[in-house]
Design goal:
By secondary structure, the chain is α/β, with parallel strands linked by helices. The chain has one domain: Ribonuclease Z/Hydroxyacylglutathione hydrolase-like (Metallo-beta-lactamase, Chain A), CATH 3.60.15.10. It contains 10 helices and 15 strands.
C-alpha cells in the first residue's frame, strides 16, 4: 500500500491511499487545480482515483469535491448528514450514501467508517486496509472517544490530528465563541491531547505516525515536533502540512524498518485559517 497527505491543515485536507491500481482519496478540501498539481508532483494521476470518501461537510474537506468528482467521474461516498450539510448538488450517479460505520470495498482495499465527535451533521473518520495493513486517518476529533482509541490500537500507519497548542489558543486573537468551539469536545484536539491519545493507545504494530490538520493560527511545526519527537524514537514520525504534499510513502518500506526521520516542510508563507 502507498499513501500520502496531498494537503493537511485547517485550510484544506486531502489524503491518498492506494493498493496497486485501487486508489482512493479521503476528502478533497483544496481546489482541483492544486489537487492535480500536488498529485503530479508525486507522479500520481487523478484519473486513477476510483473513489472519494468524505469525512464531513466543512469547507476544508469538500472545497474541491464538486469540480474534481465531475471532471474525473469518480464516485463519492459520504453519510446522508454530510451530503445534506454540504449543500452540494452532485450528479446522482456519483453519490453513494453510507452509514458512519460503513464498510466499503474498492478492489483490494476495504474502507471502514469510524463515527466520531465533531461539530458536523454526521461525521466519520476512516480506516483503509488491505486485510494486513491498517492505515488510520483521524482528523477533526472533538475528543478521543472509544472508536478513536481502537483505531490507534489497530493502526500500522496513523495520521492523527494535532490541531492546536492550548496556550496559543487561549491567549490568541480568536473570539471566545470560536475558542470554545474548537476546545469544547466537538471541535479539534490539541497537541497535548493528541500526545496522550497516542501514548495511551499505541501498540507495537504502529510503525509510522503522521501528525496533521495543524492550525495555521494556533500551532506550529516546531511545537508539534517538540511535543512528539522524544516519544517516537522507535517509529517513523512525519508532519503533514498545508503548504505542500508529503512524500509518497510505501508501507513495505515502513514495515521493514527505515531509519527515523521527521518529514516536514518549511513555513513558506502565512495563511488565515478557520481553526
Amino acid at each position: 500500500m502507498k499513501y500520502a497527505a496531498i494537503a493537511s491543515g485547517s485550510n484544506g485536507n486531502c489524503y491518498y491511499v492506494a493498493k496497486g491500481n485501487d486508489v482512493i482519496l479521503v476528502d478533497v478540501g483544496i481546489n482541483t487545480k492544486h489537487v492535480e498539481l500536488r498529485m503530479a508532483n508525486l507522479g500520481l494521476s487523478p484519473a486513477a482515483v476510483k473513489a472519494i470518501f468524505i469525512t464531513h461537510e466543512h469547507t476544508d474537506h469538500i472545497k474541491g469535491l464538486s469540480v474534481f468528482c465531475k471532471r474525473y467521474q469518480i464516485g463519492v461516498y459520504l453519510t446522508e448528514g454530510t451530503y445534506k450539510g454540504s449543500k452540494l448538488q452532485l450528479p446522482e450517479h456519483l453519490v453513494h450514501i453510507i452509514k458512519p460505520d460503513a464498510e466499503v470495498r474498492i478492489g483490494d482495499i476495504l474502507v471502514r467508517g469510524i463515527p466520531k465527535y465533531h461539530d458536523a451533521k454526521e461525521p466519520c473518520s476512516f480506516v483503509v486496509t488491505d486485510g494486513q495493513v491498517n492505515i488510520g486517518i483521524l482528523t477533526d476529533l472533538g475528543r478521543g472517544c472509544d472508536h478513536v482509541k481502537q483505531v490507534i490500537r489497530d493502526s500500522d500507519v496513523l495520521l492523527l490530528e494535532s490541531n492546536y497548542d492550548e496556550d496559543l489558543l487561549r491567549n490568541g486573537r480568536y473570539s471566545y465563541y470560536l475558542k470554545n468551539r474548537i476546545s469544547s469536545g466537538w471541535g479539534h484536539i490539541s497537541n497535548k491531547v493528541a500526545l496522550e491519545l497516542f501514548l495511551e493507545n499505541r501498540t507495537t504494530r504502529l510503525k509510522h505516525l503522521i501528525l496533521g490538520h495543524l492550525s495555521g493560527e494556533n500551532n506550529s511545526l516546531t511545537l508539534v515536533q517538540d511535543t512528539f519527537c522524544s516519544h517516537c524514537a522507535d517509529i517513523k514520525l512525519s508532519i503533514a502540512t498545508r503548504y505542500e504534499e508529503t512524500e509518497l510513502f510505501d508501507v513495505t518500506h515502513i514495515l521493514t524498518g527505515r531509519p527515523l526521520d521527521i518529514e516536514s516542510r518549511p513555513l513558506a508563507y502565512q495563511q488565515n485559517a478557520l481553526f
